[in-house]
Amino acid sequence: MPRKIQFSDIKFQSLVNYEKVLARLKPQANVSDLDATLYYADEPKESGFRILLTEDASFSCLYIKSTVKKTQTADTPLNTSLGFSVNWKTLVNIVRQYPESSWPNVVVTLSLNDDDTTSYKIDVGNDHISLPHIALSETALQTKEFIMDEKPQEGDAQFHLSQELNPKALIEEMTSSLSFVGDDDRVHNAVSIYKDKVLANDTRRIYVADIGGSIPEDKDFVSIHKRTVEIISMLNTKTTFGDALISPLGDRIYVQAPELTLILNNSSINVAPPADEDLKSLAPANILFSIDSAVLSSAVSFFTTFYKSSDKRVLTIHIKNDGVLLIIKDSGVAGFSSAHVEKFLDTGTILGDGEEDFEFAVHQDDLDEFLNIVIKASGKNPPPMVDVYVDNDDDHRAMKLSTVGRSVYLAKKN
């Protein structure tokens, strides 16, 4: 049953647009390095082909529009799909080798021959490229179709991003919160959405943004794996928008953008966000002092050049009666002198009569991240003031910085 399908006038722009997004996946190869499926569904309105990538329990489908020319015998069954296992990076690299002006000249051909052999060819003008591949059975293709068509009904999803009042603002806060998610993929690896806030935390910091989502009444929060948040953020541009639905069981997240569908594993999330009562107990209820966020950011950044590359960038904060002293301390190496750098912030009188000075340490990077988020969010407006909540009570294990719309809790190190 010989058959040949040619794709021409291929709109490779969608491949280029989503190349970085799809690079976040690690597709599995069925045989050798054939880790993608180039797939054509023989349907009346079909005007292109799909690239399917599979990674553990995650899947993606990129639709690439083109002109389709079919050559087949009369006994070929109607609506017969055709798919080959191919190498994803090889296809991307070939497209990248040619300027965009050459893309209309690219012809991709999939062939099933009389002698049961197959071919996968890419022709660009006088250049002819034949590539390794394996033809997939109709059953295998139907299985892939079933997986990609699996999507929760509107009312069944735990969360539906496009139905939020301000989805882009929610995405921006979810993206900001990634700075406070740990590097370990096994724990603290997700962002949590509540009805009134977005929260991310690990063992030393907690970030809270005052923007919530529409989640089921019987749930305190829903969580989205940090990689999925990164992907949604990458799709949140001026020209595209990455919609997302969380499956009824919360184990999968369906991400949709023009010509791209992703089904991403969400079952590996491992988070333990603090309850409201826990947050209240971490820091004192009263503000110790307020300071311009830009002034504090400049002071904190001052120390960056004094750290060694191997240092943990710990910043000591000494609370005095008349201001705040920022310090880095380096005991040095035997035979060399130590380093001690101080910078004073004049905040006015902040301690009451009889209160003693005290000091603690935090990670400079955490301060930097929060202040950068605050200043960036202010846009063209003056950077806002930051309220600082901290005291010398051991029961209050964190310093809290708060401004309009967001707060951070940083663990104190004595």
How would you describe the overall organization of this protein?
This protein is α+β, with helices and mostly antiparallel strands and 414 residues long. The chain folds into three domains: 3-149, DNA Polymerase III, Chain A, domain 2 (Roll); 155-265, DNA Polymerase III, subunit A, domain 2 (DNA Polymerase III, Chain A, domain 2, Roll), CATH 3.10.150; 278-411, DNA Polymerase III, Chain A, domain 2. Helix content is 20%, strand content 34%. It contains nine helices and 26 strands. It has helices at residues 13-17, 19-22, 88-97, 138-149, 167-177, 226-235, 276-282, 293-301, 364-377, and strands spanning 3-8, 36-40, 48-55, 58-65, 67-72, 82-86, 106-112, 118-124, 127-130, 134-135, 159-160, 190-193, 198-201, 205-209, 222-225, 243-246, 252-257, 260-265, 289-292, 314-320, 323-330, 339-345, 358-363, 385-389, 398-403, 406-411. It has a nine-stranded antiparallel beta sheet, with helices on both faces. Strands 15-12-13-14-26-25-24-19 form an eight-stranded antiparallel beta sheet. The protein has a five-stranded antiparallel beta sheet with strand order 5-1-7-8-9, with no helix packed on it. β3 (48-55) and β4 (58-65) form a beta hairpin. The protein is elongated and about 95 Å long. The protein starts with a strand and ends with a strand. 31% of the residues are buried. The mean pLDDT is 90.
